[in-house]
Each structure stands twice: as C-alpha cells, then as structure tokens.
Amino acid sequence: MEAVDVYWSFRSPYSYLSTPDMLALQRDYRIKVNLRVVLPIALRSPDILFAEHSAKRARYIVLDWARRAEFLGLPHGWPSPDPVVQDRQTLQVAQDQPYIYRLSALGVEAQRRGLGCEFAAEVARLIWGGVAGWDQGSLLSDAVARAGLNLGELEAAIAEGSQLTEIEANQRALEKAGHWGVPTFVFRDEPFFGQDRVDTLRWRLDQAGLAG
Prior knowledge:
It is built from ten helices and four strands; from the N terminus they run βαβααααααααββα. By secondary structure, the protein is α+β, with helices and mostly antiparallel strands. The chain starts with a strand and ends in a 5-residue tail after the last helix.
C-alpha cells in the first residue's frame, strides 16, 4: 500500500490543525498515513523563529493559528502547560523539558502500534483545544484511550525504548525531503508543507488514482 508520511510536532499549532485532515486522508484514499514525529523547531533550530531577528515570525504564528482554528471550527487555546518550557517574553528555551520528549516518544510508540494519527489527533486536541492542565489527572490517559491505546502500556514501552532515536531519524528524513517545518506531508518524495496544502496533496493523490 502506498503511504503518506506526515512530519509532525506536538508543539506546533498547525500540526494540531492538520489532524482532521490526516484522519480524512486515511478514510478517503487507499493509503497509509504515517505519523513521523519530530522535535519542535524551538529545540531543533530555534533561530528560525526565536532569535531576535526572527521573533516577528513567532508573534505572527500566535495570531494566525488561532484565527485559522476559528475558521476551521476547531477548539483552540495556547497550551497550559506549554509542551515546550519557554519564556514567553525572552523566547529563551529552558534546559529542563519535562513534557515534549515524553509526548514525542509516546507518539512514536503509537505509530509503531498502527495508531499514530489517531493518537496525534486526540492528544493534540487535548493540548491545543483550550484545556488547562492537560497533564493532570486522567485527561491524557483518557485521550490516549479514545485513540484506541493504553497510556500505561505506551509509557512502559518508551521507558527503555529507541523512540528518541527514531525521532532523530525522522528529522533527517524531513530535511532529505526538502523541508524543515511542520506539518509536512510527503508523498512519493514530494513535500507538501503546511496544514493549508492538504487540498494540493489530495489533488496529487487523485492524479495517482488512489481515491477510496
């Protein structure tokens, strides 16, 4: 079966906005959609968005993603806590990161179990959908259960696993595909960057005769 790889981050609001499309692609086409988790740009290449000369890009994203979510009819609110611990004023990224590596590793393990897109959709909606304290109580485990997985089993798998190594491989593959940002969809080595380019990807899939 042909595949579409989606390079995706738990700290990217546009990655969140892409999740309904990821699920729809699986439903509408004879393809497998593979979640390829990468670390956020704040950890991979912070100068792209968070250096003094590029800070206006980050400010624009904060404005634009919420507008886009409203346009799409998706619940939205800046995460609390933020998956990446970062000073909102200075844009400095903290050394201690208690959330993003865990979330990313869990996403890799979910993909290994065949439910990467489902996991991403449920967990991203929890984090980016305006739910304060998404890391508290049973909220995360409930979201994982809605994706058809068990959080305890995923946690056990990542405790001594190779998920972070796979994330590094995903990051190299994203660069090889010709891009750096997320979400980037790749079909037959052709990248489609951005949540708003899924229609173009669908056009290409239709050309390939893969409609359901």
